[in-house]
Amino acid sequence: MRARELGVPVGDGAPGAHNAITDIAGVRVGHTTLIDGGTVRTGVTVVVPAEEPVFAGFHRLNGNGELTGTHWIRESGLLTTPVGLTNTFSVGVVRDALASRVAGPWTLPAVAETWDGFLNDARGMHVRAEHAHAALDAAAPGPVAEGNVGGGTGMICHGFKGGIGTASRVVGDYVVGVLVQANHGRRSRFRVDGLPVGEAIGGEIPLPRSGLSGSELSPPGSGSIIGVVATDAPLLPGQCDRLAQRVALGVARVGGVGEDSSGDLFLAFATGNRGLDTEDEVALRMFPRARITALFDAVVEATEEAILNALLAAETMTGRGGNTAHRLEPDALLRALERLRPGG
């Protein structure tokens, strides 16, 4: 179930053919999902641009997290590798695996993380290089699997089972797509269509501070969200920075505030200028500043819908130590919306 299919308000913009980041021509997504016994609930997701390098930008809402390669993205304005998403303790192995697949003597892969230690034996470091290679080999255009898949397998969002979600918007001749790994937010702040559905549904999962013990609990909302934006509009690096910033507004519309314990990191890339891997001068195109607000709108709406899609696609999961994260039940969401709307 996705938000749009359920009839949940997701803004006024029109989605692309698959309502996914893969609606940008050439962009592919692949997952490797690891579920083993009672303790392993993790994986890898990769987003592969149409080609590399492409112009890119980055934004940090709150920095309690990791996205490798961002210093070079800021310095050069270029994304030169696929983007990997995984759990906190597996960034290194995924980064090395992606590096081994890039031609040439030098690369700085972009790999981001969120912590899945409530459901997964995170310190067991179960993700291996072959899992990252498999996700890269599986990367494909078209519909994208959401919820308990890939890097989102063990994630929790607004006190419900979270994970991977995606959405897109058509803006004139161009498309904007967003993919999130949603592992953030307090249930008490969860909003849909501006309404406090989290309070209406109630409940909150107490999360242990580490994967070793549940004796010390984190405050509600501890967690992170990674957002990847893609567009085929001809943006320059500074404009990509501006699109990455707007992911934060989509996160806020669902109730996220970038809590102190959260790693909220957003990357945007644009495929509208090609042939950048050259020693020759390159003629570039630039999207007009007077029209860029329409792209901002698209990022905000697609981010909001991607988070809701992650929540609605996810299934209840039991993992490490018998810990259970329950799904956001579609009927419960619809009932809450009905009660909260004027006259409800």
Short description:
This protein has 344 residues and is α+β, with helices and mostly antiparallel strands.
CATH architecture: 4-Layer Sandwich
Order of helices and strands: HEEEHEEHEHEEEEHEHEHEEH
Q: Roughly what fraction of the amino acids lie in strands?
A: 25-35%
Say how many strands there are: 14
Structure annotation, total helices: 8
Whole-Å distance between the termini? 24 Å
Query: What kind of sheet is the major sheet?
Result: 6 strands, mixed
* CATH class category label: Alpha Beta
Radius of gyration over C-alpha positions, nearest whole angstrom: 19 Å
Number of domains: 1
Say what the CATH topology is: L-amino peptidase D-ALA esterase/amidase
Large-scale geometry: globular
Give the uncertain stretches in residue-range form: 209-215
Specify the CATH homologous superfamily: L-amino peptidase D-ALA esterase/amidase
Give the % helix.
25-40%
Spatial strand order of the main sheet: 4-3-12-11-10-9
Structural class by secondary-structure content: alpha+beta
Mean pLDDT: 94
What does this structure look like?
By secondary structure, this protein is an alpha+beta fold. The protein has one domain: L-amino peptidase D-ALA esterase/amidase. Helices cover 25% and strands 26% of the residues. The strands form 4 sheets. A 6-stranded mixed β-sheet has the order 4-3-12-11-10-9. α3 crosses α4 and α6 packs across α7. The longest helix has 21 residues. The chain is globular, with a radius of gyration of 19 Å. About 2% of the residues have low confidence.
